[in-house]
Queue: 4 jobs
Job 1
Amino acid sequence: MAQPNEAEMKKRLFHRGHNIENASGAPDGWKTTINGNTVINKLTLVKKSIDWWYDMQTFMPPEKFLARNSSEKNGQKIEEYKGYKLINDNGEPNGWYVILGTKLLKGSPDAIKKHLDLVITKMQKS
């Protein structure tokens, strides 16, 4: 029995009632049809389009999700500090925040770092 060539093999997935296939093997070659619209893109973006269709009953091409993600992350700054991520989404000096357990700390990076140091010191003592 002859083995099929790897280039001839199609990868197929099933997501929320849709068959998604990749015949090319390229990362952005995933293809499906949503409400009569054929979409070809990265697997995660194709799945987002399918999810959007099922949740909102409107078609959203994968490219729209890509544009949203890149515009949101352009102004975002992330700073690592002792295992915590300090995030600033808006570029303002006091627009920084970090999630500490179940609490949200907001303020300047220096103030957040001082508070984190106190919490870490307290946790090490106990």
Note: Helices lie at 43-56, 62-74, 109-125.
Job 2
Amino acid sequence: MSPRRTNAERTETTRSQLTHVARELFSERGYASTTIAEIVERAGLTTGALYHHWAGKEALLVDVVHDIHRELAVRIRSLGRVEDEPVAQLLSSGREFLAFCADPAVARLLLLEAPAVLGYERWRQIDEQWWLSTTIRLVERARATTAGTGLAVEGAGAEGSRRLALALLGALTYLGHEVAMKGSPTVAGAGRTYEVLLNSLFP
């Protein structure tokens, strides 16, 4: 006889199920064309169960976006550490992001639907929540071990590293949009462009 699940376990199962189904439907039909009724029907749950966890569809989209970032983080961790070299880690994680953007479902939700629905500022905050601190740490390590032009352009100190990290994330977002629009054949070229950028900053 299997042990009874706790309330916390049941709650997490329900949230995960609804998030997964919402992600599927948003990818298939688009956010605007998907209704709450369709989400709960596919999940086999009630409307009340959904509203118990989220105020509405937009709040659910926020969790879907976090779910996509979480999946990307797992993929990047699965690469392992590239030696222990910060520039190599920036490059490998950037390439993984660009390959991730070649998935039409990911591209539609993460790069098109989410910023349009949530607004650029909220969308950017979620992105930075997942990636900014890690990128800053890698940039700081890279700056400490190279004499890259980024030192002269941005100046010394934590704020310089933060600006460089934001610039790298912005470049990846732009390249990710290109991959999303043009498809998987552009992944390699976008990755080479990002590599050139990194090498110019940290030669």
Note: The chain has ten helices and no strands.
Job 3
Amino acid sequence: MNIKLLIGFILLAGSLSSCKKWLEVQPESEISAPVLFSTENGFMEALNGIYIKSTSHDLYGKELTFGTTEALAQNFSIGTDGQDYRQTSLYNYTNGKFIERKDKIWSGLYSAIVNCNLILSNIDERKNVFTGSNYELIKGETLALRAYLHFDLLRLFAPSYLKNPTAPGIPFAKKYSKEVTPMSSVTEVMGLLIQDLEQAKTLMTNDPIRSAGYKVNYPLVTDTTKNTEESSPILFLQNRRHHLNYYAVCGTLARVYLYKNDKVNALKNAKEVIDSDKFPWTAQSDFIAFDEAKKDRILYKELLFGWYIPGSAKDIKENWFKSGTRSFFLLEDDARLIYEAGTVGGEDLRFKQWLTLMADVSSRWYDIVKYNRNSLSTEANANLHYLMAPAIRLSEMYYIAAECSYATDPVQSLKYFNEVRAARGFQNQLTVPSEDGLINELLKEARKEWLAEGQMFYMYKRLNKAIAAPTGSAIPPSDKIFVLPLPNDEIVYGGR
């Protein structure tokens, strides 16, 4: 990576808060670094600044959640192309709009990584400013965030581990430096990811979310015997699921190990999340509630980690998911095909709650209402939970456990798989004749679960499977599709 192009520095732009008063990202100031990192609070401010940077529209506030990655996965119908993703869905990687978005993803993720390295380059020598376990927590969380961001870069811009483990991967930026970071192979990057994440997991042993007293629930639940997510007197320690907490690190490790086809360690980390009993399945009464103020569309309590995206609320409502075929939507036949609505999917609560059938004189389509908010009010307490972009779900841990255990215990594997289905309203228990059969069912199931969440493209790529188009056709797997081109500036200035 050409670090010289990307260095940015984070300054405080207001009082720190657990969910609303976040930080602005300002131009670099070498002079301010010693000041910012002279206090524990300064490190907390800097880390929160990276989260807000990562929720820009160029990153997880749009493109990596329901923008570019969803178009690549064929998860939307393309009507009048009001969002300008048709060429992306056709894998025209020379298209100007695609290049613009793709290059901003690359530079944005690396800019956030640079700021992770800035924290890590200062934290050890300032260890004396921390209280309690906050040094270990902040260092661990920063290492985990650096790995999380690198992993998405790898999954976008390099061949999969299954397809070509020795191929050039991405530059793995391990230090805060203005020097050009050398390219690492896919295998080398995987090793560095695991190293960061395992160190983070060890450091974060005392994460508050692991305590028996930490109760996951909706922010409007004020009974502290049922919800303690906002009870800490230290704002940084509230809403741990808005940060890469201990269990989110386990979830990321499960993802990374599975990408490496290390099913033993993937299963181990997925089971640690499952066996913690920390994350309850969403009550069906909350999922199907008629009153928008009491409805949980996003399955909030099941999130191990989510990006807090209040800055995307206006565009979600008025542009990206506005009713009609100029936004992100699904034609009626496409939606029914994805959710198998005519057969086994007729009882799927996701189909019923995330899609709303609409029509005009010439067509019928489904609006995607997964991110809808209470239209009567913009107040925080007007909704059951905050506006989040899901990053790691409990259901994914069950999918990983099912995939990793089938070869040794197919009965238990199907128990994992069917538990998710039961939580989504299915009464029947699915059976499969083989491991290949399970993979096919997992692909269909994940596509239903992760609609407009940005994860499906990575699953097709990891497994080197054909991408299912909304029309029912299949797009053959190919690195011409799965590997996005590096930015031109990276090739020129980075010498790639």
Note: The CA atoms of residues 10 and 25 lie 5 Å apart.
Job 4
Amino acid sequence: MTDKRIKNGYEEPVRQLTPSEFDALMEEMRVASVWMRAELKRRRHSASES
């Protein structure tokens, strides 16, 4: 039950992202990172009040 594409723990990429897809992915990651930092700060703040 092994996948022939996986060798030494590395999976071959299915295809290369286009520059616009890559830019969209990086933007999505940036937004998620900003949200995550804000969420952690909010949770720390609410935990310190209780």
Note: The chain has a mean pLDDT of 86.
